[in-house]
Amino acid sequence: MIFLDLDGCIANIGQAVANIYGIKLTPESEVKYGNTLYKLMRLETKKEMWDVINATPDFWENIPPYSWCEALVDALQSIDEVQILTLSPKADANASTGKVKWVDKHLREKKLRVNIVHDKYLLAGPGRVLIDDRNSHCKKFNKHGGKSILFAQPWNEGSYDADHIIRSIRKGIDIKYLHLDIL
Asked: Which of 38, 93, 130, 144 could be 49's S-S partner, Cβ–Cβ 3.0 to 4.6 Å?
């Protein structure tokens, strides 16, 4: 079983936030701002950014997919069952529904189950792999008996981006062992 995170792995939440402000993110701005994207929007705090997200109707279902979204899901499905594993922001009542709508809109034909939780590690266990862009989620998942791959993004120290994971699968490399290099 492979659990794939939504925001930051296959859904470009950074660009979705930037879209609210009419800004087109570049790879350079993503690297520069990473986890402080709110500063690019000229906001003082991350909370201000979340307040804007929470006040934006249909924000979650309208996040643009990353270009590799379908190719990554296809590659993962070629080796194991894939489910989406995502968090639900407590302050946004529309987030859970929006995330389910996002998967239906962009990946309907993949027939993915969507798990919306407050603690991802609760689904950890033998034979289960989490692909996530947050180091803290990966560490907890590993601690509770699963394996994880820290999905490379400008805001983390991950080594494995979508292309690397897809190439590894095509070469027959068991992705359950990729985590050993990063955590």
From this structure: 38
Please state, in angstroms and rounded to a whole number, the distance separating the CA atoms of residues 3 and 32: 29
66/24 Cα distance (integer angstroms): 14
The encoded tokens of residue 14 equal 């950074």
DSSP 110: G
Pair 149, 24: CB distance under 8 Å = no
Residue 143 confidence class, pLDDT cut points 50, 70, 90: very high
Domains of the chain are: 2-12+62-181 (3.40.50.1000), 13-59 (no CATH)
pTM of the model: 0.90
DSSP H or E segment with residue 17: helix 13-20
Q: Which residue has the higher pLDDT, 63 or 176?
A: 63
Q: What is the spatial distance between Cα 171 and Cα 79, in angstroms, rounded to a whole number? A: 12
In the structure encoding, which two tokens stand for residue 167, read together? 């190439």
What gap in Å lies between CA 59 and CA 99, rounded to an integer? 9
Whether residue 17 contacts residue 42, with contact meaning beta carbons closer than 8 Å, is answered with: no
Strand partners, 82: 2
Q: Whole-angstrom Cα distance, residue 50 to residue 56? A: 10
* Mean pLDDT calculated for residue range 19-45: 77
- At residue 14, what is the residue type? G
